[in-house]
Specification:
Elements lengths: L5 H14 L12 E2 L2 E2 L3 E2 L2 H17 L2 H30 L4 H14 L9 E5 L2 E9 L2 E6 L4 H14 L3 E6 L4 H17 L7 E4 L4 H9 L3 E7 L2 H8 L5 E4 L5 E4 L5 H13 L11 E5 H13 L2 E4 L1 H11 E5 L5 E5 L8 H6 L11 E5 L5 H4 L6 E7 L2 H11 L6 E5 L3 H11 L3 E4 L19 E2 L5 E2 L6 E9 L6
Helix pairs in contact: 3-4, 3-5, 3-6, 4-5, 5-6, 9-10, 14-15
The structure holds nicotinamide-adenine-dinucleotide (NAD).
């Protein structure tokens, strides 16, 4: 039998997954999946922190080799159970695509750095030897989102355990079963590799109150928050050392030197990955006027559906809703019932029936349209025509809103590429590829689901969760 190509294997997996039944809601909740009771899940945050502290002390007593054995087992279980977590994630949150969530778990298993990321530094001279080592913080309090729930729990766990920390999670309430499935997976891996029963912990019912306890508890030495602007702000004002991975609104520029056939396909592939849930995914396009028609026609051949201005306004009335804040100001926020939904489901809301082959809704808008300004996290992609590179950069930088998160560009003009990269100052800048190349999927570099722009750690990994310690031996141990 001929060997299957990677694309063919993916297609087969995708078809099998499509036929698999989503797990029935009665079979899982935040404490169990089927007959398996989750380990490390607590009713009370104080109890969870105590257990995570015991986990930390157990990790401290381990050799690096033992830690790495646990991480190897986490990787193995993540690969094996990726289809289950992908199914559960979609079933619980109603968001995203099963096959893409499966791929995200495989990416985490394969490309999240382990203990090799922790590197010591030595300096020798006339006055002896000074050693700088990357030490654990202790117990990390981690807040995780609904958009990549189990992916973030596993990715954070690998990095934090590699660094020698214990972890307590306060996951997003809307994805608590999926997040706690991942917490249990990490604990199962730990036990299988000869570690304690409980290494990482979470809550039966996470709330803002349990997050507040975590933020002020004396045993929590580091807070790591992956989520929207509200929660990142809360964590950064806690008074503790915090790593904040916040919202983005990644713009894409396409100029008239780009390979338009590739750009159109790459943009639709990136924008529709897990129905646009990743914070790095393409959210709005600024296309040179002289290639915009061609770009749109390529997109249409790659699963996009073009709606007109009236339809776009009608859709905006549905996917954005008004909310009154505490000060009485009314503002538009995304309708949670539309986030991460399939394009055909969103189109049906404005009376347009299309097949499941349609994966993205595109429309031409002006710069001020809410589709450009808001981080929708849905497969809706506005396209704004621009006259030249100056205008493209000016508008794209404004649309990114100073998040300094992620931006993309399709161009062969190195001056244009350099100018945009300098102006937008994002943590991730992807050139001539789909957005996910920026987290190691089809691009070089390690993977993370916690991209810490506001606090500067960037593409986080084990070393981000360490503190430096210096050990000085005066006048000795220099061997030359
Ligand atoms: P969200 O902001 O709704 O919630 C994130 C988590 O914070 C949840 O656990 C929630 O319960 C909790 N929370 C919310 N407000 C809080 C507060 N004041 N104090 C304590 N906890 C609080 O996130 P979401 O909708 O699941 O995720 C989407 C957002 O997260 C998007 O803005 C996206 O860009 C961002 N995100 C960023 C990254 C990154 O790496 N930078 C990764 C994923 C998601």
């Amino acid at each position: 039998m001929a060997n299957l190509s990677e694309a063919e294997i993916r297609e087969v997996v995708s078809q099998v997954l499509g036929k698999m039944q989503a797990p029935a809601a009665a079979d899982w909740d935040s404490t169990h999946y089927g007959s398996r009771k989750f380990v490390g899940i607590y009713d009370d945050m104080n109890e969870a922190i105590k257990a995570a502290d015991a986990g930390y002390r157990a990790v401290r007593a381990m050799s690096v080799e033992q830690r790495e054995a646990i991480i190897t087992e986490i990787r193995r279980l993540t690969r094996a159970e990726a289809p289950t977590m992908a199914q559960l994630g979609v079933a619980e949150t109603g968001m995203g695509r099963v096959e893409h969530k499966r791929l995200k778990h495989i990416l985490v298993a394969d490309k999240t750095p382990g203990t090799e990321d922790i590197v010591s530094n030595a300096r020798t001279g006339d006055n002896g030897l000074t050693l700088v080592e990357m030490a654990p913080f202790g117990v990390v309090g981690a807040i995780t989102p609904s958009t990549n729930p189990s992916e973030t729990v596993i990715c954070n766990s690998i990095g934090m355990i590699a660094a020698g920390n214990g972890v307590v999670f306060n996951p997003h309430p809307n994805a608590i079963a999926t997040s706690n499935y991942a917490v249990d997976l990490v604990n199962r891996a730990c036990k299988a590799a000869g570690g304690p029963d409980v290494l990482v912990c979470s809550m039966v019912k996470p709330t803002l109150d349990s997050a507040a306890i975590m933020q002020s508890h004396p045993l929590i030495r580091l807070l790591v928050c992956t989520g929207g602007p509200g929660v990142v702000r809360a964590v950064l004002s806690s008074g503790k050392k915090a790593i904040g991975a916040g919202a983005g609104n990644p713009p894409v520029i396409v100029d008239d030197t780009a390979d338009i056939a590739k750009a159109g396909k790459d943009i639709i592939d990136g924008c529709t990955f897990d129905n646009n849930l990743p914070c790095i995914a393409e959210k709005e396009v600024f296309a040179f006027r002289n290639i915009a028609d061609e770009l749109i026609s390529v997109m249409l051949k790659n699963g996009a559906y073009l709606i007109d201005a009236q339809q776009a306004d009608k859709l905006a009335q549905i996917v954005l809703v008004e909310k009154t804040d505490k000060k009485g100001n009314v503002r538009k926020i995304v309708n949670r019932d539309c986030v991460g939904r399939d394009a055909d489901v969103l189109l049906a809301k404005i009376g347009v029936k299309v097949s499941k082959d349609i994966r993205c809704i595109i429309c031409e808008t002006d710069f001020n349209h809410p589709f450009v300004q808001e981080e929708l996290m849905m497969p809706i992609l506005p396209i704004v025509r621009v006259d030249n590179i100056d205008q493209a950069i000016d508008l794209a930088v404004k649309a990114e809103h100073g998040n300094r998160h992620t931006a993309h560009m399709h161009s062969k003009n190195i001056d244009h590429l350099s100018r945009f990269a300098r102006a937008v100052e994002t943590t991730i800048f992807v050139k001539n590829a789909p957005s996910y190349a920026g987290i190691g999927f089809g691009g070089e570099g390690h993977a993370t689901f916690t991209i810490a722009g506001p606090t500067g750690e960037g593409i986080t990994s084990a070393r981000s969760f360490t503190r430096q310690r210096r050990c000085v031996m005066a006048d000795s141990f220099r061997i030359i």
